[in-house]
Amino acid sequence: MNSKIKIRAALIALTALIHVFAAPAQAQTNVVGKYDKEYLYSGADRLPRIIEKAKAEGTMTFYTSMSTVESRPLAAAFTKKYGIKVELWRAPNEELLQRILTEAQSNRNTFDIVETNATEAEAMSREQRLSAFYTPYLADYPAAAIPPHRMWMPDRFNFLVTAYNTNKVKASDLPKTYEGFKDPKWKNRISIEAGDWDWMATVIASMGQEKGMAFFQEFAATKPELRKGHPLMAQLIGSGEVQVGLTTFLANVLSGKEQHIPIDYAPVQPVLAVPFAIGVAKQAPHPYSALLFADYVLSPEGQEVLNEMGRLPASSKIKKNSVNFPYTVLDVNASLAESRQRQKIWNALFLK
Fold it and tell me: Are 90 and 117 in contact (CB under 8 A)?
């Protein structure tokens, strides 16, 4: 099966999940979980109680869309600190969501904690797969990024930037805005990630609906290549197979640069900032280990682990990797509410 067919199949499969994205949050029934009270406990003895009970559990299952290059060291750091074994299962955002929803339909409660894109985390919360939880590090995070229900917390941000292979493209040749990529000289040199319709919506909003749609119709006519997976996009740029990736995660670019791979980026405007989130399972088999892991990731210690790996932590306590350009933070609720329409427009533009 060639790459275009694989991409089409993946997006068709994702359509089955759109009803979850489009469902209004207030329509969901609050299902009481066995450990909801424990998750929200904030007494002075909270941490020693959690540590004691988590160590008695001895293990936990961690679902994540974070690359194993980062998620494994993060899990290892937690294990080293507390002696609790972490079973890790990694998949792209939409596959992770699909697995969790499938498990719910068969009444299976396998995962303890999840870390993924905030839109998928919000969809999980609306399906009552996550539970609200207390963390003593709440004040370290931007209030605007924390959902009122607190069924997930933002633990890091990523930025969709224009990345390029430094052996094939000069930084001075890159346009300052996306409209510059309509120039014929960029034909057959550009790729975009196969599911980045939130990026499309952000660009359209920045230009205005009429002008933005006209731009994307012209841009789609140049037939940019679609690639599945942001980490893969960065790898292909580094290898030279892709010269320019318009929707590349900054964290993947920074990681590649540290490995002396010929990749760099430019903050072509508008830059979309995508929040990632961590949440504890409502019916977790190992609830105390899950809560302890959430605390660890959100603590300055855990956030520094992410920072050292080139991820961009959300905590205000951490000196982040340099981000000295303007950006637009994704509105998670708008993304979910408009997901069906955004995907429809995207498919018409790039998969017709």
Answer: no
pLDDT of 209-249, one tens digit each?
Answer: 999 999 999 999 999 999 998 989 999 999 999 999 999 99
DSSP-derived letter for residue 28 is: S
**Separation CA 235–CA 134 (nearest Å):** 38
Residues 291-342 have pLDDT tens digits of 999 999 999 999 999 998 888 899 989 977 668 888 888 989 999 999 999 9
CB atoms inside a 10 Å sphere around CB 102: 10
Given the structure tokens 């000069």, which residue do they identify? 170
Does 270 sit behind a cis peptide bond, omega within 30 degrees of 0 on the bond before it? yes
Structure tokens at 66: 């974070």
Q: Is residue 237 a contact partner of residue 263, using CB atoms and an 8 Å limit? A: yes
- C-alpha 119/C-alpha 93 separation (Å) is 9
Tokens of 20: 């979850």
DSSP state of 26: G
CA 212 to CA 199: how far, in whole Å?
A: 12
